[in-house]
Amino acid sequence: MTTDDILRTVTDIAAAETGLPASTLTPDADLRGMAGVDSVRVLRMIARIERTYDIELEDEDVFGTATLADVAAVVGKALREAA
C-alpha cells in the first residue's frame, strides 16, 4: 500500500465524516479549519480510519496532526509498525 493510497482513503473518510466533497480536500487541508469540523468529527474520522486499517493510532501522534497528509503519514507509520 502506497502513501498515495493511504492519503486517498484518509481523504475519502474525511469527506464522508465531514460531508465535504473529497474533491475539495487537499493533502494540506487544515483539519481544524474545515467548515463545520469540530473535535468530535475529527475523533470520528480517526476512529473510522482505525477500523478501516485495523490499527490503533497513538494519541500523541494523532494530536500532532494538522493536515490530511499528516494523518496519512501517521497511518503509514502505524501500518509499518504493525507489519
Automatic annotation (TrEMBL):
Q: Does the keyword Phosphoprotein apply?
A: yes
Q: Does the keyword Cell membrane apply?
A: no
Q: Which InterPro entries match?
A: ACP-like_sf, PP-bd_ACP, Ppantetheine_attach_site
Which Pfam family, an example, fits this chain?
Answer: PP-binding
Alphabetic keyword roster:
Phosphopantetheine, Phosphoprotein
UniProt-recorded name of the protein: Acyl carrier protein
In this chain the Carrier domain maps to 1-79
